[in-house]
Amino acid sequence: MSDSNRDAQHELARIHRSFGPISPTLYNMPINIVDQVLEKLEPMDRLKIRKVCRNLRTCVDRFGIHFNYIIFHIWKNAFELGMDGFHIRYTDAENGGSTVRKDENQETPIEGASSMKIAFQDLKTVLKHTSELRISNEHNEHEIIKSFIEILKSVKCIHVKTIKLVNFSFNDVITILQYCNTKVLESIALWDTHINRQFENIAHLDQWKCAKKCSLFGDKLENKLIDHLFHFQWFQIQLDDFPTYIAIKIRDDLMRRSTFQGCQIYCDTSKSNPIEIAKVFKPDYDGGNEFEIDYSNDNANFKIQFNSFRNSSSRFDMHKL
């Protein structure tokens, strides 16, 4: 038992003793006393007691639960929900029910409900209690993704600052992003999402326009689409090649924007000319293929680096000083 849980139970026992032989309901307890008890509990403990009864659910929801991040994995016949390092795994059982395992220590059989149904019910419960949501779709099955989107529809709006989607179709990405609160969402990460297909459709989303950071990984962005990233304060992308004209765009447009903070661009080393890129920012550059340059314009000072990365790729890294 965690120290916080033990302290909370001691506090509850003390409160009950103070009321004499008749145990008060939480509604009869002073709100500040209930809050003192809930404050001692970890988020997972609050989530557990929330399921005990309606009164506890009301009290916990009023007080609040917060997870720094939630990770949800979708596999074939299995799901996993992670909340600040605490993991719950859901698998289908041979009898038609399912099995829920919590951190490898506790396994609970559940009859009459599939692993998908239970996993999505738990996900729905915690969606409103996090600022960062990561969904990894390892088993790309249409019906599962459809059920996930139905969960989002029932929640109506998720108030996350950061969302990361891995291995989703482009159309599903657009659908999911539209359930994010535009005023809250700050960072979008899309990995292995075939982002080049109908890219303009995502660029028209308010969520895309209002976010501050973006990471596109696993797919190489077409060079002509890079302009759609210039409103971000920071972005990370992969290109097939890194032509000089993109470096000029970055210098003459992006780096003059007051909100711009930096970017990382990964490219194929054999299809790029790092020396010509360096000369865009330092015309008298006479060094090699890897460089570090300090660059200044009328608005700000920048550090620019170009280095070998791995698997025949290079990384262009720029940040405002």
Automatic annotation (TrEMBL):
* Residue ranges of every copy of the F-box domain listed in the record: 23-70
Fetch the Pfam families from UniProt.
F-box, FTH
Question: Could you name the domain of life of the organism this protein comes from?
Answer: Eukaryota
Instruction: Cite the CDD domains for this sequence.
Output: F-box_CeFBXA-like
Q: Which InterPro entries match?
A: DUF38/FTH_CAE_spp, F-box_dom, FB224
PANTHER family reported in the protein's UniProt record? DUF38 DOMAIN-CONTAINING PROTEIN-RELATED (PTHR23015:SF4), UNCHARACTERIZED C.ELEGANS PROTEIN (PTHR23015)
Q: What is this protein called?
A: F-box domain-containing protein
Q: Which organism is it from?
A: Caenorhabditis elegans
User: What's the name of its gene?
Assistant: fbxa-67
